Amino acid sequence: MQLPVDFIARIQHQFPSDASQFLKALDTEAPVSVRVNPAKDAAVFTESLSVPWCEHGLYLPQRPIFTLDPLFHAGCYYPQEASSMFLWHVLNALPDLPADPVMLDLCAAPGGKSTLMASFLNGRGVLVANETVRLRANILMENMMKWGYGNILVSQSAPSAFSSVEALFDVVVVDAPCSGEGLFRKDLDARSEWSPENAAMCATRQQNILQHIWDALKPGGYLVYSTCTFNPAENQDNMNWLLKQYDASPVSIAVDDSWGVSPIPVGDGQGWAFYPHQARGEGFFIAVLQKEGNMHGAVKNKRSEKMVKAKVPQGILKGQDQYFMSTINQTIYALTHVPLMVYSRLASQVRFIHQGIGLGQLVRNDLVPHESLALSLDVVDDYSPIHELSVDEALHFLRGGTQLSVSDVTGWCRVAYYGVPLGWVKAVGNRVNNYYPKEWRIRMGG
Ligand SMILES: C[S@@+](CC[C@H](N)C(=O)[O-])C[C@H]1O[C@@H](n2cnc3c(N)ncnc32)[C@H](O)[C@@H]1O
């Protein structure tokens, strides 16, 4: 699949001195990389090299079959393109963030940036991970549950749903849908779908998205805008347009010269671009704008006190007294203070599909546990027995199989691989019922 002629012409104009190296690099192999989950420290990648701008990022010498690794399903790591991990460096460089930041990832599926943001927060504050496309939102929800944190709210709403939310977020990440030029190396469909008209349409759509979200940012809060395209109209031009519309200023981020990241003028400051012939990663653009004004501090909302407190057995979560319990469609969810405040502020505008930690449903005093409880970092260690599986057994479980020898157990049991829980089984007599969600099951091989 050849590169589109109009794209080549624009690149030659945009990079007069090194267009041929740029275009040649698009025909080389894309680097393979993963970001490990530091809270589920079990994945081992030998021969890997560190991604310089993200301490949890690793380049791998070749692409493993992630689907056939149980630790991938346990949320121990996330295969993520290395340039996107630059968000880690950016978040760590933001000045004066509150101790419990309230963050939104507006265009979040499948969850690459959201899992990174969850690791950045490491249980502090709250992350709202939102995706407008329904099927993609389900994948986002699955990935967020597997990552294990309880301070995450997952929603499925259009950006316009946030337009009447005022001054709630300290950080809003808009990883916008774009013309995808940065993926031309590894995704040949991106080449066939590209046209100048489509790229122009993307730029307009991005402006609409940015307009919808601006008021939801607190004064003093940060907008982090990124795309995976080289198109100036979708990158710096959109940032300059935003600076004309609203009171904001670009935030400078220090970058090591050896990383091969290019500064791009934005207002009187700069954004950053990853080009395939200079940086070890796919095409990417990122810029940060700070809204004028002072940070408001913690979110306040009295309505949260009216939350229904569901009755649940004790001893499920570490520090369970700190959690507020609520029930939606008979499923009990546990939320700590900050997620609860944010949930209350958004609940009438935004459609939540997951919140905090799903505990499960009470059926005749037996808690039928939710999958997110097995994967949660906050579940009490001895809440249920944990049965260790071999790799073949773990893959059998992940395919929905029931030929598992958990003979020493009756009732609910978490099955684990390398000590990291994968999900629930229930042993009844000499039968084992598999509670791994049908839509998460592996269909490959076996
Ligand atoms: C670049 S992708 C996000 C990737 C994600 N942030 C990650 O790191 O895994 C852009 C997302 O925006 C969503 N999207 C598409 N049209 C949209 C729109 N009009 N408004 C908001 N989001 C949209 C897409 O479904 C897609 O999931």
From TrEMBL:
Residues where S-adenosyl-L-methionine binds: C107, A108, A109, P110, G111, G112, K113, E131, D175
GO biological process entries: RNA methylation
PROSITE patterns reported for this sequence: SAM_MT_RSMB_NOP (PS51686)
SUPFAM superfamilies xref list: S-adenosyl-L-methionine-dependent methyltransferases
Keyword Iron: no
Recorded superkingdom: Bacteria
GO-annotated molecular function: RNA binding; RNA methyltransferase activity
Occurrences of domain SAM-dependent MTase RsmB/NOP-type (ranges): 1-292
Assigned protein family: Belongs to the class I-like SAM-binding methyltransferase superfamily. RsmB/NOP family.
Protein name: 16S rRNA C967 or C1407 C5-methylase (RsmB/RsmF family)
